[in-house]
Specification:
Layout lengths: L4 E3 L6 E3 L13 H13 L6 H8 L4 H13 L12 E9 L15 E10 L2 E10 L4 H11 L5 E5 L11 E5 L1 H4 L3 H4 L1 H16 L10 H12 L7 H12 L7 H5 L1 H4 L3
Parallel strand pairs: 3-6, 6-7
Antiparallel strand pairs: 1-2, 3-4, 4-5
Helix pairs in contact: 1-9, 2-3
């Protein structure tokens, strides 16, 4: 149809080819979006909103920031495969040191669960998620979403991992082992170290708590494809995901808790 719209032959409804995708409602051309996706996937450590604005010649920093967040929402493929084999699982915290807290209690810091698949001495694919607190229900729920049943789950001796059903559980009591946690669970600790370095490097530590989940998605997307020799394949994968993810507005992105977004 005119104006680049498609017409349904049955109901006669007219819709844009971008309807129902992250590109819905965009005022700028898809070619510019494709350049943004290439910029994001071709750089080893990603790109900041300021870089996207400068390289693409966007009119405002807000546009670059919004585009990046929309692309981050497309970095998790719907129905993605779970990890399998032997998988290390551990928890970590992101945020500044807190005064007056004991043990694993936290008021401001974000609690992150990490799963890393073993591939011999190397790290395979990973999964990450922020949780509201360190409870057995939340930890078991994360493992159920991240790891295939029947797999071997290797953890420390924390009680929240006990009673894990459907998996072969190998708890390690670190205090009795004579080794450090990073020696006994080397893959998850390496992943956490790389995550913190990435947040402080590429993003300069400027991650708002409300948006942390999507930065974890970006890190996971990049880490799981770190050995890919073709940047073009990463471009295609992100573009495939982008047309499967529902659109989101700037308001939904900037104030997710106020409008029911993520």
């Amino acid at each position: 149809m005119g104006r680049g719209l498609w017409l349904c032959g049955q109901c006669r409804h007219q819709a844009s080819v971008t309807a129902g995708t992250i590109f819905e409602g965009t005022r700028l051309g898809l070619q510019l979006w494709f350049r943004a996706i290439w910029q994001v996937t071709s750089q080893k450590n990603g790109a900041s909103a300021l870089t996207i604005q400068r390289v693409l010649g966007l009119g405002s920093y807000q546009t670059g920031w919004t585009w990046l967040h929309k692309l981050r929402r497309a970095m998790v493929r719907p129905g993605r495969d779970r990890l399998g084999g032997r998988v290390e699982v551990d928890e970590t915290y992101l945020g500044a040191r807190e005064e007056g807290v004991v043990g694993r209690l936290t008021h401001e810091k974000a609690l992150i669960l990490v799963a890393a698949q073993q591939e011999g001495p190397r790290i395979g694919r990973i999964r990450m998620a922020r949780v509201a607190g360190l409870s057995r229900k939340r930890v078991h729920g994360f493992i159920g979403q991240a790891v295939r049943p029947g797999s071997t789950v290797v953890t420390d001796g924390l009680s929240v991992y006990e009673g894990l059903e459907g998996y072969r559980h190998e708890p390690i009591v670190i205090a009795r082992s004579g080794k450090t946690a990073s020696e006994l669970l080397p893959r998850v600790h390496r992943v956490v170290s790389l995550l913190k370095r990435w947040l402080m490097g590429t993003l300069h530590g400027g991650v708002q708590p409300a948006h942390l989940d999507y930065y974890l998605d970006e890190f996971t997307f990049r880490f799981n494809r770190r050995t890919s020799a073709s940047r073009g394949k990463l471009f295609c994968r992100l573009l495939q995901n982008a047309v499967q993810i529902a659109p989101s507005t700037y308001r939904q992105i900037v104030s997710p808790h106020d409008v029911g977004g993520g």
